[in-house]
Amino acid sequence: MTIRYLSDLKKGEEATILGFDPKSCKDIDFARDLEDRLLEIGFEEGLNVKILHEGPISRDPIAVRIGQMTVALRRMEAAAVRIYDGKP
Amino acid sequence: MANNSPDIKQDIKIALVGSPNCGKSSLFNSLTGSRQKVANYPGVTVERRSGKYTTADGKVITLIDLPGIYSLKDRTLDERVSRQVITGTHVSESQPDLLLCVADSTNLRVHLRLVLELKHLGLPIILALNMHDMAQRDDIRIDPEILSKELGVPVVTTIAVRRGSLDNLKSQLSRTLNDLPPKQESMPAPTTRELQQQARDIAARATLSEGSQHKITRQLDRLLLHPVFGILIFFITLFGMFQLVYFWAAAPMDLIEGGFTLLQGVISDILPDNWFRSLLNDGIIAGVGSVLVFLPQIIILFTFILILESTGYMARAAFIMDRTMAMVGLNGRAFIPLMSSFACAIPGIMATRTIEHHRDRITTIMIAPLMTCSARIPVYALLIGAVVPNKPIIFGLFGLQGMVLFGLYLIGIVSALIVAMVLKMTLTKGVAQPFLMELPKYQLPVFRHLMINLWERVKTFLRRAGTIILYAAIGLWLLAQYPKKPIGGLEPDIFYSYAGIMGRALQHIFAPLGFNWEMSIALIPGMAAREVAIGALGTVYALQGNEGQVEQSLRTIIQSSWSLPTAFAFLAWYIFAPQCLATLATVRRETNSWGWTAFMTGYLFALAYLAALAVNKATIALLA
Asked: Which region holds residue B442: left if phi is over 0, alpha if psi is between -120 and 50, else beta?
């Protein structure tokens, strides 16, 4: 199985969160706190995510449905979320 | 604060704590009504909202509404202040006796994590499951009793926007307060991940039905975040907002202006012509009036911003603009404050509080005054009217005057973006900040809460801008009045005053820009507010008559005695110059730093000087 990230998904696509991989962000300082922030806002292993909307320029940022809420994030941040296709 | 001595407990204090978008502030508004006070925590720009609540059995309780937080990690100023208050380590705010945790019922899993983290502090807690109505509508069912057992704290359901729904909470408050358990030893909290796991387990046990995502939100977002229609709606909203800011404000502004003129007339009738009358009329009323006249615009602007915030649209606006703002290193949230600055930089700078990251906030504040505010319009209008012919261009679709005005706006915006980019590469350089934010459910604003918040913001504006402008008006009046004209002096009074002396000294500096001494003098009273410079020019040229006549004669004088390079340079000066003491005072308050205030003043004056110089020389070269 190839490793995929939330940032790879297109609008309308769904996946399940496998884990977090902040190291996949280029900027190490930026990534330091990212996992905790993602957890705090509601990202969690095993949850289903779906890309609901994409920003008007370069399809960035993205809005994803997670649980009962919608969270907006940039693709750069979404690159820290590892996913696998399909339902949990 | 005086009432905080640890041994004499004067009254009971409850802190409202919760994550952003849990409806905490609505609950606070419903409980306290208009009995609330908004101030700043000392030394930081975190708002301290406090209010009084009377229990059914007559106890008066202080409620404080802490800023919305996701955790107690000290990541942002808000989180730090909240953590300090809750843990009792804040310098001026004593530890609350009870925490009223507010959680969004439709998003229990996420909000419970904070509740679990707070439980480790050992303070008594009541949990309010808010937005109960929305949860029901989305078929989300939670058993408060199971939740209460699992958490070991009382749990009540609330609908913050409906005051009638708070009976459960109120009786629970009375019960808890009559038998307030003492604070227990605090324990270190486990990691975010462990808390998350616990929260998930508890939420799963207490949730009877999972329901679905808010349907209206889903449908509205499909339209409002649409790559084409979403953007269209966004710009129509902004355009409409500005139309109304100018359109609706026109009549009340005339009324305020008329009121001040009337007041000046009355004072002229009852007081003899002495220094006191002049201080009142030419100093205080003229100065304070010149700022207060913008109040209607500011009230309308605040109303729109509050509606955008309370409906949940603001987060969508940030989403739409994020990518564009990211090009100059800023965040989507910086857009609305900058937009507001087109009416007046002061509410714009105050609105930067929604930008959680300090460096991003500073950058936004630094560029806010470059947005063309309303006070520049009279200056622009006068000069354009005097020196730019109103001939049709581009097949008669546009007028040249309008195009020049538009150009001045555009130069302001482009300069702001360039300055932001340079700042982000130098002074405010740092790690990029995540954009990560929840897009809250759409909600109808509650009129009562809207009015309470509007009144709070207007009061803050009046207090901040009003006091500084009062002192500035008196100070500038003194400078313009004294010393008096010597007997036999040929020039107008102001020529001999301190302002005149300063202006004439400044003229040596301004000479390369083509400014004459009249203009240099007018810039000094013009520090009160940009459009005051027009009145000051009228004074320097010793013009008589009412405002309209003065403007008409000024136009003639500018046409006859200012050269084109001089007039253009003056316009260029006004794009950049920080000619407004109230804005500078607001920057000082909001950044809490003299350094940044000085930096802004310095860089804007430098830009103004260079731009005016360049425009002057370029026009001379073109005309040659």
From this structure: beta
Q: Where are the alpha helices (DSSP H) in B312-399?
A: 313-326, 335-340, 345-351, 358-367, 376-387
User: Could you tell me if B143 and B136 are in contact, meaning their C-beta atoms sit under 8 angstroms apart?
Assistant: no
CATH topology of domain A4-85: SH3 type barrels. (2.30.30)
Chain-centroid distance of CA B535 in Å reads 28
**Does A63 contact B319 at a Cβ distance shorter than 8 Å?**
yes
Q: Which residue in the set B71, B107, B432 is minimally distant from A69, CB to CB?
A: B107
Closest to B38 measured CA to CA, from B28, B27, B47: B47
Chain B residues whose beta carbon lies within 8 Å of the beta carbon of residue A69? 106-107, 110, 213, 438-439, 441
What pLDDT digit, counting tens, does each position of B111-121 carry?
999 999 999 98
Could you read off the pLDDT of B209-218 as tens digits, one per residue?
A: 888 878 889 9
CA neighbours within 13 Å on the CB side: how many for B2? 0
Q: If you search the block for the tokens 């040229």, which residue do you land on?
A: B541
Q: Identify the residue with better confidence: B116 or B592.
A: B116
Q: Alpha-carbon torsion B322, A60, B443, B56, what sign?
A: negative
Q: B 581-600 residues with CB below 8 A of A?
A: none
| Nearest residue to B141 (alpha-carbon basis) of B213, B214, B202, B210 | B210
Give contacts of B322 with chain A, Cβ < 8 Å: 55, 60-61, 72, 74
Q: Compute CA B458 distance to the chain's CA centroid, rounded to the nearest angstrom.
A: 10
Domain B2-212 has CATH 3.40.50.2300: no
Contacts of B332 in chain A (CB under 8 A): 61
Other Cβ atoms less than 10 A from the Cβ of B383: the count is 22
The confidence score (pLDDT) of residue B544 equals 64
What tokens were used for A28?
A: 């190490």
Alpha helices in B541-580 (DSSP H): 547-561, 564-576
Coil, strand or helix at B90:
coil
Task: Kindly provide the ipTM of the predicted complex, given to two decimals.
Answer: 0.94
Residue A61, preceding bond cis, omega within 30 degrees? yes
What would the two tokens of residue B12 be?
């009971």
B380 and B574 Cβ atoms separated by less than 8 Å: yes
Give the closest residue to B585 by CA, choosing from B529, B541, B501.
B529
Give yes or no for a contact between A41 and B20, defined as CB atoms under 8 angstroms apart.
Answer: no
A19 touches chain B (CB under 8 A): no
Q: Do A44 and B196 touch (CB under 8 A)?
A: yes
Distance from CA of A62 to the nearest CA of B (A): 8
Cis-peptide, bond into residue B483, ω within 30° of zero: yes
Q: Is the Cβ of A47 closer than 8 Å to some Cβ of chain B?
A: no
Q: Does A39 touch chain B if contact means CB atoms closer than 8 Å? A: yes
CB contact under 8 A, A72 and B200: no
**Residue-by-residue DSSP string for B600-621:** HHHHHHHHHHHHHHHHHHHHHH
Distance from CA of B431 to the nearest CA of A (A): 6
pLDDT at B153: 93
Annotated domain spans of chain B: 2-212, 449-623
Chain B interface includes A2 (CB < 8 A): no
Q: Where are the domains of chain A?
A: 4-85
Q: Report strand pairing: B125-130 vs B98-104.
A: parallel
